[in-house]
Amino acid sequence: MSDWEAGQHSADTADTYAYLRLLNAFREQLPTTYEPDWAALRKRPATQAAAPATPAIPAQASAPDPKAKPSRRGARWTHEEKDRLRTAFLAGTSLQEMAESLGRGEKALRWALYRLNLIPFPVDDVPAPHAEPKKKPKAYTVAEKRKTHPNAYEPWSTEDQRLAECCVTGASLAELAQEFGRNQGGIASRLLKIDADGPAVEEAWEHGG
Fold first, then answer.
1. Most Cβ neighbours (<10 Å): which of 3, 72, 79, 193?
2. Residue 120 lies in a domain
3. Residues 99-131 pLDDT 10s
4. Distance of alpha carbon 76 from alpha carbon 80, whole angstroms
5. pLDDT bracket for residue 142 (50, 70, 90)
6. Are residues 84 and 121 in the same domain?
7. C-beta of residue 142 within 8 angstroms of C-beta of residue 153
8. CA 189 to CA 185: how far, in whole Å?
């Protein structure tokens, strides 16, 4: 519109006539006192400033549970902890609750309660002993021993009485080993076991029995 008012718009007769008809029709619909704000229409809309980016709020770490206690597994029991354990146990607190409160394992609590003379010996927490099978002497060892001592690893029987009698006569450990076909270690062990008397017994003690 400003170009038309300033006479800077160039158009042919048909365009001009069409524009005037449109303008007249528009004015007929407006109140007689209406006058467009040409100055406002000439102003270009100001570019909307970009809204400043909202700074991201760093995620906050979740607050720790105030009831949770740091683990004390494996640590030495203090007098304060023992008093707390005794008080809680006598108050009827469950084992699980005491474990969480003190930061200890339930097995450790049972042993602590036992040492405080509050419960019987915790048999269930004692691992069952592993019975080790009796080892038999290796075959090659037995064969080698019997080359020089024919009765090596053979069970003793009625020879015990004869061994005791020979020992009393004053036979040495080496002589007894040769007589009975056994090594000196076996003779020494047997002399001590049957509680024999004689000089060979002293050798048996020195031999290590």
1. 72
2. yes
3. 898 888 888 888 888 889 898 877 665 444 444
4. 11
5. very low
6. yes
7. yes
8. 6
Give the count of beta carbons closer than 10 Å to the beta carbon of residue 5. 10
Instruction: Indicate the pTM of the whole model.
Output: 0.30
Of the three residues 99, 125, 151, the one that is the final residue of a domain is 125
77 contacts: CB under 8 Å, gap ≥ 6: 112
Residue with tokens 């020879």, as numbered in its chain: 159
Residue with the bigger pLDDT between 184 and 61: it is 184
Both tokens assigned to 143: 């064969």
Q: How far apart are CA 190 and CA 149, in angstroms?
A: 15
pLDDT computed for residue 163 by the predictor: 82
- Residue 71 belongs to what H/E stretch? none
pLDDT in tens, 42-94: 666 555 555 555 555 555 545 545 555 666 665 678 889 899 999 999 999 99
Q: Are residues 146 and 121 in the same domain?
A: no
How many C-beta neighbours within 10 Å does residue 196 have? Answer: 20
Burial of 187 (0-12, 13-18, 19+ CB in 10 A): buried
